[in-house]
């Protein structure tokens, strides 16, 4: 085994894993509060990429600088989706929740096709070609920036949920919905904000991914599958587990290139998923329920 290549792949996988963790965080947050799985999660990431692309094209603002604006736009989209669709189906059986959210994903995908077309778009960014040499490894500055901002955004979500009154209300609604209602918490409003917050993480992830890969309307399905693997690996509803699940998945996919063609990285992802579901179905950080 080439040690230099393994080091390079390990660094690249770890940096990618930070973004995977952010992708899984939103899905895990929505499930943890409402028990609803957002099957349009990947398409919301793609919408975030296109919003970031639009801002870059029209105003010349780098995706790293427009991150919060993109997150705010997708936050508004998530709030609208929750208040108009998800609140109406939240008490339905799980099988009946799937169809509206899958349909929403298809609507978002076709909206992207309508507005931006099917072509791949890969905009040039300020840091796109910059790199840092660390020993025998080369680190892309754009990937390093994306990792740092993803971790920072994730920590801000953790602090918000832990320290703010609204965050405590979200945690209370996640722990016991009926009890939260009895103590005066407006659970429907909390659900709206929780879904919107989960959507905002997808917007942030989309902005961070734009400098790293070409965007196309059909990417959403891949991102949804990545989010599922991450949250199942870390434990459904466990936010810290989503972060570590993303890091583990990023490392596993990257290091698998030592033995497998890069095009087969999804084989590793779903292999991990099958093993986890067989031997530790609640995830590495999940509870005993």
Task: Summarize this structure as a short list of keywords or feature phrases.
single chain, 289 residues, mainly alpha, two-stranded antiparallel sheet, 11 helices, 72% helix
Question: Explain this structure to me?
Answer:
With 289 residues, the protein is mainly alpha-helical. It has a domain at 23-109 and 135-218. The chain is built from eleven helices and two strands, in the order ααααββααααααα. The chain has helices spanning 3-34, 41-59, 67-89, 94-116, 141-163, 165-175, 177-182, 187-209, 220-234, 239-255, 265-279, and strands at 131-134, 137-140. A two-stranded antiparallel ribbon has the order 1-2. A hairpin with a 2-residue loop joins strand 1 (131-134) and strand 2 (137-140). Helix 2 crosses helix 8. The longest helix is centred in the first third of the chain and has 32 residues, at 3-34. The mean pLDDT is 86.
